Amino acid sequence: MRQISRLTIGLSALAFACAVAASGPARAQGEAPKPKAEDSAEPKREENKDTKREEKTEKRDDKTDAPSEQKAKATKDDKSAEKVADKKSRADSAAYMRKLGQLIRARSPGVTSLGSGSAVVRFRLGASGAPNSVTIVSASTPKHGELARSIVSGLKAPPPPGGAYDGVQSFRFH
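and the corresponding structure tokens:
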């Protein structure tokens, strides 16, 4: 019975401590409450010529901050415009890559007499959209590499955004 009553008292004390902690900031027992702003011993500022000069100086400082705020706003607007231009550029590139993919798929044969295999080619399209260079990166057989090269070499693509396009295309033949 004693153990139960001690446990009950211990839990009651713990609950009380939690309630006190939750009700506000903890204070030491002997600590006096902090004075409010009204009760502070700080004397009120007297109005004199010096304080008026300080106020005028502060007002001038506020006026000089205005151009810097305008510059910050202009910089923010510039960054916003750059983000919009960057998004547009990415969207243009993505649309171009989709169109390029469609053109390459249209030129690719469904079935070949070479059997199954793969090839990877690297290419560069000039400002006109015509391939400037096409190189075989890897191929399962030389014939698969040449087929992939001929598909990309004969490509007639629209002019790429930015004037040129470097790409890598992989092929799987069946």
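(Above: one complete record from the training split.) Residues 86-173 form a domain with the Fusion Protein Consisting Of Minor Coat Protein, Glycine Rich Linker, Tola, And A His Tag; Chain: A; Domain 2 fold (CATH 3.30.1150.10).
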